[in-house]
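Same chain as my last thread, 682 residues:
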Amino acid sequence: MKKLFITLGKTLAVLLITLAIVSYFILRSSLPKLEGQISSQTDYPVTVTRDNQGIATIIAQNRSDMSFALGYLHGQERFFQMDLLRKNSAGELSELFGAAALNYDKKIRVHQFRKRATKFINNLSQQQLNILYSYAAGVNQGVNDLSAKPFEYWLLNKPTVIWRPEDSLLVLYSMYIDLQHEDGERERVLGQLQANLMPDVFAFLTPRGSNWDAALDDTSYAPAPIPENGFELAPLLNQLGLNQKNFSEDGFSPFHDEHEADVGSNNWAVSGNISQTGSAIVADDMHLSIGVPNIWYRASFRYLQNNKKVKVDGVSLPGTPAMVAGSNHKVAWGFTNSYGDWNDVIRLKLNDKGDQYLTPEGYQDFDIETEIILISGQPAQEVEIKKTIWGPVIGTDHDGTHLALRWVAHDAAGVNFNMLQFELAQNTEQILKAGARAGIPAQNMVAGDIHGNIGWTIAGSIPKKFGTDNSDLIDWAVPQDWSRGDFGWSGYLDIDEYPKVINPEQNRIWTANSRVIGGEELELIGNGGYALGARSQQIRDGLQAKTSFNEQDLLDIQNDDRAVFLSRWHKFLLDQVLNYDFVQAEDLSSLLVHLQNWQQRASTDSVGYLFVRQFRLNVRKALFSELEKNIKQNTVLSDISFRLRPLRHQLEIPMWQLINEQPEHLLPDDYQSWPTLFQQLV
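reply #2:
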């Protein structure tokens, strides 16, 4: 028996060693080619060099050949990432991950993005098509030239699928899903709040602004006062008592993260009037969720356009042939997500049979289509999609009303490759105009040129809306009935109608996902869920603290990790919560020391910083979790689970009012007093 165990052990060891060797060679065979020559489908030879950080410089005779080489690099180094992006927006993740992704795919298939990509690619110019076809050819050759398929496909036991030109449009659609609410969640949440709460409470929880506002035009909006009513449901709703049903929320999402600060882009520019070179300086950090690999791919392009040399340095997006943000040595540009109101949820009125919906021209039949979802390891499933004149049906509201979605992403204006013109712009004015023509998820575009000019605008299509003031939270920010014809969209803004700021008097421009502008220009953009403004304010103050700048000065602002936003929470803890008697009774002297030495910055070794941050989150949960629970229980006719997360940034404003004014009628039921609440959350 002992010999048998020894023999089995040796055999197992040999198998493990063999497996390790095979795995090593498979993984090594899937690595990209970093040196040598390849036979390619280009018109002229293309050279790729790499610096000591591995960043590629592509030198080509024309843009088409350069696109082939970029596709080759993306295909060899990032194909699985690209594949996830196209399958994410096409609703095809079940092909890779099986039933785990099925509910997610069903939700995304409503938008029929693959069908739209196949259709809208025909709207591109011949030059853009040539670039996309060359890029796709490069991707496919890059994957084929690998000695083994990327390791992810070995783990999933799946083959790679060729890259098609229209797949690059699907990558853009995936960015729409990542940057905007594809299911209208924020608007639906606001509608549920409005339907469940008294008007003064709703206004209190949905403020238009606060002292954190840092708009370029100095506009500000005051928060609403403490409401007279409480957070309990409106009396009429309590009397009605909605019929409950069980709701099971599918948690699968390839890009999902519940962390509050998983994203947070920023960009800014200083003009030549205050730079040490006389040229503008642009800083940009497009901060999406952290992943491996990084979503961006750094590169440099060198090619000829009309016999003129073009030099572009920046970051590309694997799956597309474009330089998303960077510099062409004449003008530099960058983005932050704009959080304007780029889609609207429509409450439908159905006939008695439920097979027609009301429009300004009377009742119409739904346009019904069927799509097939392929599922790894299971039979395929059919998905029925109902479409209206405004957009697809996306689900039901809190009272069971069917909802449709009007979204920029559904229109031809929402997706194109006009962003390729960024590489050729000669100055700030030209690139801002190119941004207005770009079919991308609407972004805050900040640019600066060698002549010292700086500017901001929205890059991406902006819908023209009619029916109400677009900045009015009560109207466009909640689902509306469009059947009377008094609400709707009437096309898109012309270039000369776009909001923009060029060469402001302060010689500085900044954005960080919060409101950038006010007044009539804000009405064009709307409010799709702005960040609070604390980051914008900290950047603005850093820019205003100096009168002359070089690149290092802007990098210092980028690396500023001071916890300015949490400073008032730190002070509140020390002044109003951790009094002497409480500290002694609970033996919190060591905590007090950590808070007194908290460094006032996001430091990895600062216990005090982490405690202040968590205390704020604990307070928010204590103040609003019961409200979320009550509304969730009384909006069970909706097909999505109610949660306050889409409003988390603006809740800071009423939360700070509550802890400072401490109104007795808004004290959560579980606590005897406001001081007790705070101390129990320590």
